[in-house]
Design a protein that fits this description.
The protein is 39% helix and 20% strand.
């Protein structure tokens, strides 16, 4: 029997929301500005406004949602009710009792998890990893985030504090990272790192670089530009190093790569696969496939709704 849930995906600039059927169909969706610069109460207000829009649509169409799932940046409590902190792009987003506030306002059960975790869940339930039980999701953008499913269940480490893949060390004597460590995968393999490296090489070569983003670098790479090729090769080397470590630890069925640069084309994934499978231990990697995400910016809302559909899992 088809059921319905509300999925909310909180980002630094926008709050996306959707009314989702249990088969993954999106019946209604929209987005609002996050209002991060106005403080936590303003952000909570936008989340609630998105949920209420979904409830109004559901009521008009005779539908009754079973619950609400929310994906938020940062570390979420093990009971999936509160954001503890770690969301650098939303100032003051610490110890936020999202579940309590939304349950009081809507009367529906509410569960919260990290946004990258719920993208992983969305791709597993409805997207590129559908049918798999052991999945790692990596999103490559301004930073690098990730999520893990083990035996079909989200895994976040003890009390949901782990799976910070962007902050694994790939260069032990590397440059400082914003997290306080050095040599992190995010600092060397994110799209922001790719752009920063290209700009630095242009400066070294005394070459003008007035507009620079990942899309432009990929276009220059295809055009045969030597500097673009150099920094893309470095990007693949670092990112594949991180993926190899992940495969050696988890041996997943599927590694899903999301984020804007992953949409550059199959050539991008082919280069990653070539490097990963050339160096990874065959006994760990022979059952693993590396694929691009298919849900795009719907992954967060679909995963959040998927969380609302699933039975609560007992966690430490």
């Amino acid at each position: 029997m088809r059921s319905y849930a509300i999925g909310i995906d909180l980002g630094g600039t926008s709050v996306k929301y959707a009314l989702v059927a249990s088969d993954g169909g999106v019946l209604f969706s929209g987005k609002l500005p996050t209002l991060a610069d106005e403080g936590a109460e303003a952000v909570l207000g936008q989340i609630l406004a998105g949920a209420k829009s979904c409830l109004e649509f559901a009521a008009e169409n005779g539908l009754q949602p079973v619950g609400i799932g929310v994906g938020s940046p940062g570390v979420v409590s093990a009971d999936e009710r509160m954001v503890l902190g770690g969301a650098e792009n939303i100032p003051g987003w610490e110890r936020i009792p999202i579940s309590d506030r939304l349950e009081q306002a809507t009367g529906l059960p509410v569960r919260v998890n990290n946004d990258a975790n719920l993208m992983a869940l969305g791709e597993t339930l409805y997207g590129a990893a559908k049918g798999a039980t052991d999945v790692v999701f990596l999103t490559v953008g301004t930073g690098i985030g990730g999520g893990v499913l083990i035996d079909g269940r989200l895994y976040g480490g003890y009390r949901n504090r782990g799976t910070e893949f962007g902050h694994m060390t790939v260069k032990c004597d590397g440059e400082p990272c914003a997290c306080g460590s050095v040599g992190c995968l995010e600092h060397y393999a994110s799209t922001a790192a790719l752009v920063r490296r290209f700009q630095a090489r242009c400066a070294e070569e005394k070459r003008a670089c007035t507009r620079c983003d990942g899309e432009m670098i990929v276009a220059l790479y295809h055009a045969g530009d030597a500097l673009a090729r150099e920094v893309m090769e470095e990007h693949w080397d670092y990112l594949s190093t991180g993926i190899i470590s992940i495969i050696h630890i988890f041996s997943p069925q599927t590694v899903v790569i999301g984020g804007g640069i992953s949409e550059a084309g199959e050539f991008y994934l082919d280069e990653l696969r070539k490097r990963v499978f050339a160096r990874a231990m065959a006994v760990c990697s022979e059952e693993t496939r590396i694929v691009g995400a298919t849900l795009g910016n719907r992954a967060g809302c679909l995963g959040a709704a998927g969380l609302a559909f699933r039975p609560t899992e007992k966690k430490s």
